[in-house]
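Give me the fold.
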Amino acid sequence: MHILNLIPRAGCVASCLLGGVVVHAQEKSIADNYPSRTIRFIVPYSPGGPTDVLARVLAQKLGDALGQQIIADNRPGSSGTIGMDVAAKAVPDGYTLGVIGQPHLINAILLKDPPYRALEDVVAIAQIASLPNVLVVSPNLPVKTTADLIALAKSKPGELNFGSAGIGASSHIAGEAFKAAAGINVTHVPFKLLSDVFTEMMAGRVHLYLFPLPAAMPMLKDNKLHVLAVGTPKSVPALPGVPTIAESGLPGFQTQSWFGVVGPSKLSRAIVAQLNKDVVDILQQADTRERFLRQGADAVITTPEEFQKLMQSEYAKYQKLVKDAGISTQ
């Protein structure tokens, strides 16, 4: 009786194993023939920004390696949600991918009814770069170090302010993180245009800003704004002699922007693995790394699993920060 009971169970196990083998074989067959036509990189921002520039470098190099054209398709709007909605809901065949940064996660936390789920509706393929944020102050502010800034802000609670590229932007979240770590009361001032930020900072009406390095570099080279520290664990070659924020009174504090490639959640894992290998090969090339460095970015090598873990940990961190800071898009 026990033997009879085991027979159908054994049959189920064999059937399941066979099914798994068939699925794996199908996925391998799809990957072996991939790509056979043009691939689109959905860039959810306007041309010219860090995400767009890095995406275009990768697209050109990867297209040459794969023998297929890769197009950077800019779909700006709604802080990046319009473009990422396209990428997340694309046919999961590997021909429509998304190039993302932190706003992909932050938008899903801030919006009451986001059009996609930041983690569940995409699959991580590879992180491609990290970009240091730099703590920059108005030249009219009487401070020379991060410690000076924190002391001034504590002596004048609520009187200083920090700028950002808008509610929920990476610069906003970085500013809120700095504010919380330093224990200071400074007011958030969102902007739509970077040129307006520069004008207001040079006039002394905006006091500090955590910029991604490439955005601030022209103003720093011309000595129109003053840099206090960088948000990376170590100093950066582009700013010799500038200390890290962690070395300047906030041990352990880091603030960097990161970028990566994702696909729709049901994308074949065989294609994910192949794309990761291809992207890693490109990122290891000296000329790719040099072109990234021109934008102030460091090429970053990860597995899909490592990039997925980064997104999960960042999502949890931003959830807490948004809740603690009371950030709202309303």
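The two ends are 67 Å apart (CA to CA).
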